[in-house]
Design brief:
This protein is of the alpha/beta class. The chain contains five helices and six strands, in the order αββαβααβαββ. The chain is globular, with a radius of gyration of 14 Å. Its main location: cytoplasm.
Length: 132
C-alpha cells in the first residue's frame, strides 16, 4: 500500500505519466469536460472537496512550471486570484486568459480533476515542469 503522495490511483497515474509542459486541470464542479479528456471526479457534494484542498494536494506531488487562470477570477473570486499571486511569488509563470479561452485550452489536458468547489472561476491549468 502507498504510504506517501496521492492515494487516489487515477490522480497518481496521471501525474506519473506527465512530461515537461503537459497539463492537468483542477476544476470547480461546473467546468464543462471536453469530449475525449479524462475526468477524475473527486466531488462528494457541493463544496467538498474544495478547490484549494485538491490544488494543495496536487502541488505537493507535482512540479509546476506554469499556471493558467481565467482572467475573470481577478474580479469574481478573490481567493483564487490571491492563490494565483502566490504562484507568481514562488516563481511559477502565471497566465490569465478569458474563461472561454480557458475552456478551449482544457481540450489539451491529460485530465481534469473535478472538485466539489462551487465558487466562480475556481479553475487552473497546471503545466508540468521538470525536476532536474
Amino acid at each position: 500500500m502507498k504510504k506517501l503522495g496521492h492515494l487516489n490511483r487515477d490522480i497518481a497515474r496521471v501525474l506519473a505519466s506527465m512530461g515537461h509542459t503537459d497539463s492537468i486541470v483542477i476544476a470547480d464542479c461546473g467546468l464543462p469536460i471536453p469530449p475525449g479528456v479524462e475526468c477524475i471526479d473527486v466531488s462528494l457534494q457541493l463544496g467538498t472537496p474544495d478547490f484549494f484542498a485538491v490544488l494543495d494536494s496536487v502541488m505537493g506531488d507535482f512540479k509546476t512550471e506554469r499556471a493558467v487562470f481565467a482572467s475573470e477570477c481577478l474580479t469574481a473570486n478573490a481567493p483564487v486570484a490571491a492563490r494565483a499571486s502566490q504562484f507568481a511569488a514562488q516563481g511559477v509563470a502565471v497566465d490569465y486568459v478569458t474563461h472561454e479561452e480557458f475552456k478551449q485550452r482544457c481540450r489539451n489536458a491529460h485530465a481534469i480533476i473535478r472538485t466539489g468547489e462551487c465558487s466562480p472561476y475556481a479553475n487552473v491549468i497546471l503545466h508540468s515542469g521538470v525536476i532536474f
